Amino acid sequence: MIEIKNLHKGFGGEEILKGIDYVFETGKTNLVIGQSGSGKSVLLKCMLGLFKPEEGTIEYDGTAYSSFTDEEQRELRKEVGMLFQGGALFDSMTVEENVMFPLRMFTKQRKRELKTRVAEVLKRVNLDGNENKYPAEISGGMQKRVAIARAIVNKPKYLFCDEPNSGLDPTTATIIDKLIQELTRENNITTVIITHDMNSVLEIGENIAFLKDGVLAWKGDKSQIFKTEDKTVTDFVYSSDLFKKVRDAQLKGY
Ligand SMILES: Nc1ncnc2c1ncn2[C@@H]1O[C@H](COP(=O)(O)OP(=O)(O)OP(=O)(O)O)[C@@H](O)[C@H]1O
């Protein structure tokens, strides 16, 4: 669980995050949504320790990040998996080398153990047999699965995903969403997903935090988001055609 309390962050006198309180639950896909510029990435960077908040705390399973020593921060980093926007694979490394990268960085395992663990995760994301290919030789959806394998290879307790679906067709996007949700459940990970994708909200919105102008404007789950009368949320959500159709169908009792 990651708990955020009264989080404030600004730049050059402009306040971007204006006192956010939220709990990201373990074993669930916690989605952060909101318009461009609402502060989602700033929130993510505060949680990753890349930005230091002016006020407030971020607690990882009950311990505030700010109270960690340098050594404890390093330990925490080992427990964090990161799925970057666009995958961010190393083009000059094979699939196997890409997935092995965090293991090499954070563990002192022998080559054979590293290979065994990499094979295990590649099998889990249905990519066994692709070890020796380069990112350019596989599809966008496969690249995303390599990136997921790399994010979970170290058995993280916390998984951060920045727009995991960007650049994918809707079917592949759903497969990726479901995979992230399954891995979150199987491994009891606290997963935080920044997304613009309303399909993801529909599919895996177990917890949804809606940010507007640096404020947590609404929170709930995928069933509640259709029922809310909160105009701030409905304006955002029904700017998506898909959601409008789902809402209409619900109102008609389908
Ligand atoms: N390093 C920085 N220095 C100054 N201002 C910043 C910095 N990072 C973000 N901001 C500002 O904070 C605000 C929120 O940006 P942020 O990137 O968090 O939005 P977002 O919700 O993630 O948007 P998007 O969906 O487009 O990625 C913006 O006005 C942005 O210009």
Automatic annotation (TrEMBL):
One of its GO terms (molecular function) is ATP binding. It comes from the Bacteria. Pfam families: ABC_tran (PF00005). Keywords: ATP-binding, Nucleotide-binding, Transport. Residues 2-238 form the ABC transporter domain. This is ATP-binding cassette domain-containing protein. The lineage of its organism: Bacteria, Pseudomonadati, Bacteroidota, Flavobacteriia, Flavobacteriales.
